Amino acid sequence: IKGNSSMWWTAATNFGIEYALRNGASYILTLNNDTIADTNYIHHLIGAYENAPGNSLIGSSAIDANTQKVIYRGERLKWLSETSIFMKDIVVERPENGLIRVTHFPGRGLLIPRNVFKTIGLFDEDNFPHYMADYDFTLRAVKSGFDIYCSWNAIISTYPEASSANQLKL
């Protein structure tokens, strides 16, 4: 499929999701172009989905491609203090079921069951054309009763130093 050059992350992602749903996809996997999936990535992601409560969204563990160190395993929001607890710092050993429950998740490496879109719609491209649409989406999913987990075993490699979000911090 081919979009157009005016699409930012959210519109382009929605364009692909709409195409996949029209063609009968049961799940959608959002995976950024600056990630590399581990050899058994899909196997581990589906295994995590099967171990989670029905219709859960499953995120991926991220490692730094250069150092091979874990850099992300999801977050839990602390609403009163407006901060996040980073699960990679809290959960240091693999849980028995390989799942870490989180409150929200980025779109890089996120498996989403079809019925989530039927319930809450697509990513919000009007209010979040490029950044934060994934967090908004997963927060809306939780509000609608869906659980979100990070899979300990479904691993993607990233290049943190090349991320545009990282460059914004400089």
Written description of the protein model:
The chain is α+β, with helices and mostly antiparallel strands and 170 residues long. 31% of the residues lie in helices and 26% in strands. It is built from 6 helices and 9 strands; from the N terminus they run αββαββββαββααβα. It has helices spanning 9-22, 41-51, 87-90, 114-120, 133-143, 164-169; strands at 27-30, 35-37, 57-64, 70-72, 75-78, 83-86, 99-102, 110-113, 148-158. Strands 1, 2, 3, 4, 7, 8 and 9 form a 7-stranded mixed beta sheet that branches. A two-stranded antiparallel sheet has the order 5-6. The longest helix is centred in the first third of the chain and has 14 residues, at 9-22. It is globular, with a radius of gyration of 15 Å. Residues 165-170 have low confidence and may be disordered.
